[in-house]
Amino acid sequence: MLYKRNLLQQKEDEPMLKMCLDMKEDIEDQEARIITFYKVHNADWARPLQCRLEGDAATGEGVKRHFLSMMMTKLHKGFKGNFGHGTSTLLFEGQVDHLIPCTSQVLVQSDLFKMAGRMIGHSFLHGGPPLTGISPAVLHVLLGGSPETATLVLEDVADIDIRETIQLLSLADCSKKANGERGDNELTEHQRGAVNDLALSWDLPVLTETNQAWLLQSLLLHAVLRRTSQQIKQLRKGLQESMLWPLLEARPDVVDVVFPRQSKAECSAQMVLNYIIWPGEGDNEDDDGCPVAIKCRIAGYLRQFVETVTEDKRKQLVKF
User: Fold this and answer.
1) How far apart are the C-alpha atoms of 130 and 258, rounded to whole Å?
2) Number of domains in the chain
3) Residues 250-269: pLDDT tens digits?
4) Interatomic CA distance for residues 172 and 3, integer angstroms
């Protein structure tokens, strides 16, 4: 993309950002290094990136891609370390394509969502993988849209207990409309009590005969966006610090590239093949004296592998 190419070219002569991971360390220690790296204030994330894996002989661009892939996997699936609310730390929760920021205030107080924004922007600038599966409602607000104009669905509610309570209103509302507003599917006393308890806990009015549809949308709004407003603000701040925000502001259409849906983040054979620079007839021998014919034969084996393996295997391949 022209934006990141120009940005990286402007910074190519500046001192490198250096990241070193000791592969012999425990996972928690490696994660601590990653978190420390991305919690540095006022870092210029467009500067050249140099990654080194201690205990591994690998060098070059493959190490950088491996690091960025590992970092984004941690962001997507969670860190092993405990930040005070369980045995691990999950920054985004919910189901695929409806992920929302975790509502834990401990994570907000630790500025971990600002860190997440820096990670996302840094990975994008240096050719790493994107963060997939974020709820469209969260992205709408992240890009400056009003929470009231976001399209919310039950699948956006990450907490299953809360979702089931809100769903009571959804089912009753659908039944009421289907039966000509006769209200043939009234909630039981226990169900009304569960809805009212949830509404009161969020300072919303209790259920009445006339506010069912309004209360349904208000509960969805609070469950998905009101409780995550600070997290979204931190995420936006991290994107600003990573220099990705100007692009998102100027070109909102690229949000599908930066935050693709899981279904669009497939790793097809053609996608992988398009990113490989294949040896050609005009190539010279490598420094180690490898003839072009041998390089072409090896490249043929690689092409056959990419075209025939499963998508999971291809994803493992592009990580390094």
Assistant:
1) 6
2) 3
3) 998 999 989 998 766 666 66
4) 49
